[in-house]
């Protein structure tokens, strides 16, 4: 029964996190299967002559879990860039990251984590990371470009871009969790809604894994809300008070074995008859469920 509390807390945490972010690591647990990624989970390609089979979920070369997506060249350079792309949510403040590994220098140009506003087929480039074939790594968009450093073939890089469409109206570029550039956001970008990984198919490819898409506004709201719950006094021998800014629908208290021992809906709860020990209280409101611990002494 002790596993119940852990499972309950884990499930509630999972629900909260999933509302704030989406993680894509191409695992079978996410619904992906080995083979071409085209057509799986709304992944698509735009290409002149690179077949679907060159964009595939593979196992054994990943930064998270077992799987990743490997894109290989067929040696026929494309006149236009080849895109592996997916629609993404139109958040006011977006954070998106991915791990990428590029195969070779002096071959293809790569545009990794490229973000666009797709307005019925009319594209505006929010920003992305440009790994040019000569070895230069740039933060790049229609509005600005900045050299960051030289890149190495066969090395994993963590790329992250944060876009504020509303207040700051800027684009922040992070390389391996370090802020490397901030640029203005084009006034043509209403909301970023497409994620692309691009190359020109010139005899080399790349690997992508561990994509994380976050709604930064929702994360900020949830962080604030977490501080609004208080249980006092804690520890307590007779009563606990629960202070919450939202209307409470129900309160359930579980002992350390995971057994439900009390249900209530008032913010002041008599615990005088409880044995001494640790307890979990589950607080349900209209919008969510929060779980906290208290001690009876």
From TrEMBL:
Pfam family name, one: Por_Secre_tail
Gene Ontology molecular functions: hydrolase activity, hydrolyzing O-glycosyl compounds
Gene3D superfamilies in alphabetical order: 2.60.120.200
Keywords: Signal
Secretion system C-terminal sorting domain mapped to chain residues: 231-295
InterPro entries: ConA-like_dom_sf, Secre_tail
Signal peptide (UniProt feature, chain positions): 1-19
Keyword Signal among record annotations: yes
Biological process (GO), any one: carbohydrate metabolic process
Protein name stated in the entry: Secretion system C-terminal sorting domain-containing protein
